[in-house]
C-alpha cells in the first residue's frame, strides 16, 4: 500500500505540473498568439502531458483499488489529473488520510 | 444483495466497461485518421507540381488555399496596381534580402500578391505601366505567418494578403505567387527571380503526437477492460 501511495503522490505532482504547463503555456500559445516559433517550442508539452497523464491514471487506479475506494471515488481521482490544481489537492487529501 | 440485483449490477458494470473501452478505442481510431490526413496533406504540400494550371482553377479569392493547390505552378494575367517592399525575406538558398512584391489585379474584382524579384532590381523594367496586362507564371505559396518587418507606407511586414486588405476593395486571394516569369504583349521581362524555399518532407511533431495519442487511448481502453479483473484480484 505504501508503495502505491508513493507512486500516486509522485505522479500527482508531475501530472499537476504538466497540467499547469498545458493550460497556462501551451494552450495560450496555440490559440491566443499567432507565433509559429513559439508553437514549435511548446509542441512537446501536450505530447509529454498525454503520457504523464496515462501514468497518473495507472497509479491512481492502483492506489484506489488497494485503498478499496468505490468506482465513483476512483473516477474523481482520475479526473483530478486533468485540472491544474486538482491533482495537487488530491495528493494532499491522500497524504492526510493515509500517512 | 439479491442474486437478481447482483446480476443486474454486474451486467451494468460489464456494459459500462465495454462502452468506455469502445469510446477509447474510437478515440484512438480518430487520432489515427488525423495522423493519416496530416501525412497526406504533407505529401501534397511538399511536392512542387511543374504542370502549369490557371490560378482560378485551383483556388478562389476570399478563401483559404486548399492544401491541394499549394506549390502548384500557376499562370495568371492582370494589371499591377500597387508595389511593395517586403524586407528580410529568405530565399531557397538562405540569402536574406528585400523583395519587390506587387498586387496584381485579376479580372474586375480580385487581386493576388506576386513576388516579382529583388527590390534592388525594381528599376530594371521602367517600361511597365499599371495599365499593362502582365502574364505571370510562378509557384503558388501559402501566406507567411511570421512578421519580417514593421508595416508602413509601401512596406509589408510579411507575404500575406491580410496585411494589404485595408488598401483595396478587391477580393484578395490567400497566399502569393512567387513569379518565375513575367511577360507583356511585347515580350518577357528579364530579371533575377527568387528561388523558392526548399520544401522539406520532414514529418512535423504533430504527426507523432497523433500517433502517440493512439497508443495512449488504446492503452486506456486496455486499462478499463483489465480494471474489473484487477480489482477482483486485489480485493477478493
Question: How would you explain this protein's 3D organization?
Answer:
The complex is a heterodimer of chains A (99) and B (236). With 99 residues, chain A is mainly α. Helix content of chain A is 84%, strand content 0%. Chain A has one domain. Chain A is elongated. Chain A starts with a helix and ends with a helix. The mean pLDDT of chain A is 87. Chain B has 236 residues and is of the alpha+beta class. Chain B folds into 2 domains: 75 residues; 140 residues, Beta Barrel (OB fold (Dihydrolipoamide Acetyltransferase, E2P)), CATH 2.40.50. Chain B is built from 3 helices and 7 strands, in the order H-E-H-E-E-E-E-E-E-H. Chain B has a 5-stranded mixed barrel. In chain B, strand 1, helix 2 and strand 2 form a beta-alpha-beta unit. In chain B, helix 1 runs antiparallel to helix 3. The model of chain B has no long low-confidence stretch (mean pLDDT 86). Classes of the chains: A mainly alpha (99), B alpha+beta (236). The interface between A and B is medium-sized, with 19 and 17 residues.
For this entry, give a set of tags.
heterodimer, A: 99 residues, mainly alpha, 5 helices, B: 236 residues, alpha+beta, OB fold (Dihydrolipoamide Acetyltransferase, E2P), 5-stranded mixed beta barrel, 29% strand
Quick overview of this protein structure:
Chain A contains 5 helices and no strands.
Compute the number of strand runs of chain B.
7
Task: Supply Rg of chain A.
Answer: 15 Å
CATH topology of the largest domain in chain B: OB fold (Dihydrolipoamide Acetyltransferase, E2P)
Morphology of chain B: elongated
What share of residues are in beta strands of chain A?
Answer: under 5%
Largest sheet of chain A: none
CATH class of the largest domain in chain B: Mainly Beta
Helix content of chain A: over 70%
The number of distinct helices of chain B, counting runs of at least 4 residues, comes to 3
- Domain unit count of chain A: 1
Helix content range of chain B:
25-40%
- How far apart, in Å, are the first and last alpha carbons of chain B? 17 Å
Radius of gyration of chain B: 27 Å
Describe the global form of chain A.
elongated
Range of strand content of chain B: 25-35%
Which residues of chain B sit in consecutive blocks of at least 5 with pLDDT less than 50? none
**Which oligomeric state applies?**
heterodimer
- Cα distance spanning the termini of chain A: 11 Å
Amino acid at each position: 500500500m505504501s508503495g502505491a501511495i508513493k507512486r500516486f503522490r509522485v505522479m500527482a505532482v508531475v501530472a499537476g505540473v504538466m497540467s499547469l504547463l498545458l493550460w497556462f503555456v501551451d494552450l495560450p500559445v496555440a490559440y491566443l498568439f499567432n507565433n509559429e516559433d513559439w508553437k514549435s517550442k511548446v509542441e512537446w508539452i501536450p505530447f509529454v502531458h498525454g503520457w504523464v497523464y496515462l501514468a497518473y491514471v495507472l497509479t491512481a487506479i492502483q492506489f484506489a483499488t488497494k485503498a478499496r475506494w468505490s468506482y465513483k471515488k476512483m473516477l474523481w481521482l482520475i479526473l483530478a489529473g486533468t485540472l491544474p490544481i486538482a491533482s495537487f489537492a488530491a495528493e494532499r487529501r491522500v497524504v492526510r488520510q493515509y500517512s | 444483495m439479491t442474486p437478481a440485483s447482483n446480476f443486474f449490477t454486474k451486467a451494468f458494470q460489464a456494459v459500462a466497461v465495454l462502452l468506455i473501452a469502445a469510446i477509447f478505442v474510437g478515440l484512438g481510431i480518430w487520432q489515427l485518421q488525423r495522423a493519416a490526413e496530416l501525412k497526406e496533406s504533407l505529401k501534397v504540400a511538399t511536392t512542387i507540381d511543374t504542370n502549369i494550371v490557371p490560378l482560378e482553377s485551383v483556388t478562389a479569392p476570399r478563401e483559404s488555399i486548399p492544401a491541394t493547390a499549394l506549390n502548384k505552378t500557376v499562370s495568371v494575367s492582370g494589371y499591377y496596381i500597387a508595389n511593395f517592399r517586403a524586407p528580410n525575406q529568405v530565399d531557397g538558398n538562405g540569402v536574406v534580402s528585400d523583395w519587390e512584391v506587387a498586387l496584381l489585379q485579376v479580372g474586375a474584382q480580385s487581386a493576388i500578391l506576386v513576388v516579382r524579384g529583388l527590390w534592388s532590381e525594381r528599376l530594371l523594367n521602367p517600361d511597365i505601366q499599371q495599365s499593362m496586362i502582365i502574364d505571370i507564371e510562378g509557384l503558388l505559396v501559402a501566406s507567411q505567418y511570421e512578421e519580417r518587418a514593421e508595416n508602413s507606407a509601401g512596406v509589408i511586414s510579411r507575404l500575406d494578403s491580410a496585411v494589404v486588405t485595408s488598401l483595396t476593395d478587391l477580393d484578395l486571394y490567400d497566399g502569393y505567387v512567387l513569379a518565375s516569369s513575367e511577360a507583356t504583349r511585347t515580350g518577357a521581362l528579364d530579371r533575377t527571380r527568387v528561388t523558392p524555399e526548399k520544401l522539406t518532407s520532414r514529418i512535423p511533431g504533430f504527426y507523432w503526437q497523433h500517433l502517440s495519442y493512439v497508443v495512449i487511448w488504446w492503452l486506456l481502453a486496455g486499462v478499463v477492460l483489465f480494471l474489473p479483473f484487477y480489482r477482483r484480484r486485489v480485493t477478493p
